[in-house]
Amino acid sequence: MFSQGLSGGSSFGATPVASTSTNPMKDFEVTPPPDDSVTCLQFSPPSIPQNFLIAGSWDNNVRCWEIEQSGKTVPKSMQSMQGPVLDVCWHDDGTKVFMAACDKMVKCWDLASNQSIQVAAHDAPVKTCHWVKGSNYSCLMTGSWDKTLKFWDTRSATPMLTLNLPERCYCADVDYPMAVVSTAARGLIIYQLEGTPQEFKRVDSPLKHQHRCLAIFKDKKKQPTGFALGSVEGRVAIQYVNPQNPKENFTFKCHRSNGATGGFQDIYAVNDVAFHPVHGTLATVGSDGTFSFWDKDARTKLKSSDTMEQSITCCAFNHNGQIFAYAVSYDWAKGRDFYNPLKKNYIFLRSCFDELKPRTAG
């Protein structure tokens, strides 16, 4: 069922849908959207010619759409978990999707047969899942609120390796041979994945408040060299694993606005960060309902969006950096009293390649 489709070329343009009040940036709307807040977005890997987008949400479901070159989205299928879905990732060959949920399980969804089977388990909700494609092995890495990080050969019911974490896993990223895991109490651990995965070093957090998201970035040789870390306090840290100069590490403020009373700022959580796969520039999305594009090397903002009606909960770039996807949903930052079940959830797609080009000198 997934074998047909247009190739993911560079042309991506047509008349978007959705009104300007809910879609102030006039981007393409993914239809139909999830029924509850969107927790995670991932595009298919470069191993397949089409662009597929998967989204996990609080309605316990993972949905898949094909993104045509016109910008039109074609819903393909859906799988359900027994609890809210907290993370999703693709197998590197593009045939399978892994789904991590509050039901303490991770399932593997085989797209061709449209069947899913359990491939991992924890003693608490599973917060992160990442496919590790190593030089001498492949496996699934899962991080949980049970304070463990597990590595799975998905053909076996028992993990290949279990590593204890100092606290609950809150966010993680993998770019072989490196993994970074952030835990509750602002813990930061860098792992090296070559051979047998093992802890490389622990890092003192440069941020004073709870971590919300992180993403690994590469150097000009396309080697993973550091990571961006976002917090609930409207701040992002750029951290190099082995900085040549201490000043290479820095933090910057984002997703803040001037409040109604003079001298005070409204501060919002940074819900997700993602690096552009070609330019190496950065996108952040926040509880303030905006996304921003940044050039970390020039330390400058490239673009800010207009404000959406709800928070932006997560984002992703497709494999060649032509499409930026972002989800507009309630993120519970203001608690139950501000939840409005009548407000629709949205996923939008933006043609973004030129907007994320690094700032040129001069």
From TrEMBL:
Q: Which family does it belong to?
A: Belongs to the WD repeat rae1 family.
Which InterPro entries did the record assign? WD40/YVTN_repeat-like_dom_sf, WD40_PAC1, WD40_repeat_CS, WD40_repeat_dom_sf, WD40_rpt
Where is it mainly found? cytoplasm
Q: Where are the WD repeats?
A: 78-119, 119-162, 270-304
Instruction: Report the PROSITE patterns cross-referenced here.
Output: WD_REPEATS_1, WD_REPEATS_2
Q: Region Disordered: start and end of each range? A: 1-33
Query: What is the source species?
Result: Bemisia tabaci
Gene3D superfamilies to which the protein is assigned, alphabetical: YVTN repeat-like/Quinoprotein amine dehydrogenase
Q: Name one Pfam family in it.
A: WD40
Task: Provide the Gene Ontology terms for cellular component.
Answer: cytoplasm; nuclear envelope
Keyword annotations for this protein, in alphabetical order, are: Cell cycle, Cell division, Cytoplasm, Mitosis, Nucleus, Repeat, Transport, WD repeat
Protein name stated in the entry: mRNA export factor
Task: Tell me the first and last residues of the signal peptide.
Answer: none
- Subcellular location(s) of the protein: Cytoplasm; Nucleus
Which SUPFAM superfamilies does UniProt cross-reference here? WD40 repeat-like (SSF50978)
Q: Which BP terms in the Gene Ontology apply to this protein?
A: cell division
Q: Cite the record's Gly residues compositional bias ranges.
A: 1-11
Which superkingdom, per the lineage?
Eukaryota
